[in-house]
Design goal:
The protein has helices at 24-36, 89-98, 116-120, 162-165, 191-197, 207-220, 243-247, 267-273, 303-321; strands at residues 15-21, 41-44, 50-52, 57-64, 69-74, 78-84, 101-102, 123-124, 127-128, 133-140, 145-150, 170-181, 231-234, 240-241, 256-257, 263-264, 281-282, 285-287, 294-297, 330-332. It has three domains: 3-64, Uridine Diphospho-n-acetylenolpyruvylglucosamine Reductase, domain 2, CATH 3.30.43; 69-218, Uridine Diphospho-n-acetylenolpyruvylglucosamine Reductase, domain 3 (2-Layer Sandwich), CATH 3.30.465; 229-332, Uridine Diphospho-n-acetylenolpyruvylglucosamine Reductase, domain 1 (Alpha-Beta Complex). The protein contains nine helices and 20 strands. The protein is 25% helix and 27% strand. The chain is an alpha+beta fold. The radius of gyration is 20 Å and the shape is globular.
Length: 334
């Protein structure tokens, strides 16, 4: 067995040990056994945000396969849904809509598990999961005890959290979401989605229609697992720049002012305007034919070829715009 079977890039060599943890007790026991033996540990969820070396992982890989959820609802606070870390993210989003809950509709189609969502603070089309997280329950490997974080204690930022900053300390057990009962979405903040829905920025739309439209937009970009394209989705995060650095970009570069005075710009725009085109290949690795932010395994790629292609993109963007692109994926063994 190789880890390529468990990553969306279909890359990664063998693991020294591999554990399927289907219950919370199994997950904690496997962590403690590996930690007590001095083994390196890799916690694996949906494998959608990982680039693993062809040499594999010289330690214990623990795949989180826990399942189950519970929820309670009242007219004042909406719904509180506690969901196991191993649940599939998009299946959970679909479940919330079927139960009449809003607020997750723009996050439809994102690959991975519920446990991975707060680590990356996943987001799409103007909204982030941090907006609806009430609690995250974790296992603290340092003190060997369960620790619960409120949403405000998670240190959420753009595609980051305290869990991402401490990847070898906290293992997420379950996440509690606070959702609103209703059929209207959160305000539509993203022009591409607003245009596809035929609504104005800042207005709301039917949650089922928003989900359907988001899935269609993601499919068009090859960003759905069902597309059959082996990728990790967006390989780079959108850069957050100082006002001065953003002002130095060409006039037509996208700019989204942030509350702290910084400015977000588009990684895809920078890549395209640095001369990188869809379909650009390096060995078996290539830029997606559908979206320049996705690096794909055409079927024969080595992990190092993905790394080299990513590095060449970074170098061209840096040379053209003096902006360093940061990978969104986590590198393992590289």
């Amino acid at each position: 067995m190789t880890l390529s079977e468990y990553t969306t890039l279909r890359l990664g060599g063998p693991a020294k040990n591999f554990v399927h943890a289907t219950t919370e007790a199994e997950l904690i026991a496997a962590i403690n056994e590996a930690d007590n033996a001095g083994e390196k540990v890799l916690i694996l969820g949906g494998g959608s945000n990982l680039l693993i070396a062809d040499a594999g992982f010289d330690g214990t890989v623990i795949r989180v396969e826990t399942s189950g959820n519970s929820f309670e609802f009242d007219a004042c606070s909406g719904g509180m849904l506690q969901v196991s870390a191993g649940e599939d993210w998009d299946a959970f989003v679909q479940f919330t809509l079927e139960k009449g809950f809003a607020n997750l509709e723009t996050l439809s189609g994102i690959p991975g598990t519920v446990g991975g969502a707060p680590i990356q603070n996943i987001g799409a089309y103007g909204h982030e999961v941090s907006e609806v997280i009430a609690r995250v329950r974790t296992y603290d490997r340092e003190v060997k005890a369960i620790k619960t974080f409120t949403g405000n204690e998670c240190g959420f930022g753009y595609r980051t959290s305290n869990f991402k900053k401490n990847p070898d300390r906290y293992v997420i057990l379950d996440v509690t979401f606070q959702l609103r009962k209703g059929e209207e979405s959160l305000p539509i903040q993203y022009k591409e989605l607003a245009d596809a829905l035929g609504v104005e920025i800042g207005t709301r739309a039917n949650i089922a229609k928003v989900r359907e439209t988001v899935l269609a937009l993601r499919a068009k970009k090859g960003m759905l697992i069902e597309s059959g394209i082996a990728s990790a989705g967006s390989f780079f995060t959108n850069p957050i720049l100082s006002a001065e650095a953003a002002a130095a970009l060409p006039a037509d570069a996208p700019r989204w002012p942030q509350p702290d005075g910084m400015v977000k710009t588009s990684a895809a725009w920078l890549i395209e305007h640095a001369g990188i085109t869809k379909g650009t290949a390096h060995g078996g690795a290539k830029v997606s034919d559908l979206h320049v932010l996705a690096l794909t395994n055409a079927g024969t790629a080595a992990t190092e070829e993905i790394v080299e292609l990513a590095r060449s993109i970074q170098e061209k963007v840096l040379a053209q715009f003096s902006v360093k692109l940061e990978p969104e994926v986590r590198f393992v063994g590289l």
